[in-house]
């Protein structure tokens, strides 16, 4: 079967009874032949910028649900025998969503907001988690969607928390070490190492990129107090958006400082907003507030659906949230951040008054957010027992601890902790999802064959 004759600007391909038009540069860039993609490393052997702007299609043929293209004015170094093969499913995906399907495009679970009544925090057994990839996938899916799970029957060995973490990815090494202990010590250099109440916080706020997943393995529990408390800060942020959009915008736009200040050994400092959002971009326009972005995004989605049949998902506020940066112990004095809208807008406004206004605005908004975080109906509480390990999304699920009896210093409540970064976590999750989808496809295919042969 032959496709329609290509033009210089676009290549017309009949797909499911409809002519679809593609840039020849886009089609050339999709080539996965062994000359373009290394067989073992799966990395490119040419640069997209090597594709000549005048590249044209010499011939286009559709064979067995695949597009076969021979080129005129191909990338320098490629001879006339080089051709590109692209499955029609790939082109269908581009037409519907603008994304070429592939292993990295597997579906991941959407975020699900929760409170105390809907948290439904699951427990998973240690042995199944360590030895069964299906259980590991269930754990990681739940971490991605809800941000909080527990592993039970964990051996009370100091290396257990490392073993649990390394099932998901390499451990994040920090100045605390690859693993660390949370226990009461004299003259503690971190509030976590005291017996006092520890309010809701994100760990490592003073890093530009805090850890994504935190693990805490209970080695020994306190006889009185020390209850662990968790809250879905994404839900609190969305509730703030619904109740007071101005307060939400303040926390999403004004950057505050976090630090770990021990001049003899460590001086960490980072500046970021409390509510970190994904880039608010539609086409070539960047928006500075969420309502305008959501309106433009929905308008563009509907327009693309009408004009091209593109099936793009609707976005809501939750889809725009990236991280929550919250932690009273690590908050540094507010400053005006250079190069931002926080600077004086005119010579008549003093720097001092700009900082005054920032403090007043941020304080009012932060108080409202803090109140939402502390609502009893939003809290999941648990007195962890030896052999339990909690895993949570450190940049979404804030954690706290109630005070406990410190009379037995060094022997009371004892947790072992570690971290895993976001990139390796998502990589492992995608691999597990891809393998699961492939297994399902193979089982379905086998079932169809068996049915035909029966």
TrEMBL record:
GO terms for biological process: carnitine biosynthetic process. The lineage of its organism: Eukaryota, Fungi, Dikarya, Ascomycota, Pezizomycotina. Residues 16-73 form the Gamma-butyrobetaine hydroxylase-like N-terminal domain. Residues 123-419 form the TauD/TfdA-like domain. This is TauD/TfdA-like domain-containing protein. GO terms for cellular component: mitochondrion. Pfam families: GBBH-like_N (PF06155), TauD (PF02668). Keywords: Dioxygenase, Iron, Metal-binding, Oxidoreductase. Its cofactor is Fe(2+). CDD domains: CAS_like. One of its GO terms (molecular function) is 2-oxoglutarate-dependent dioxygenase activity. The keyword Transferase does not apply. Belongs to the gamma-BBH/TMLD family.
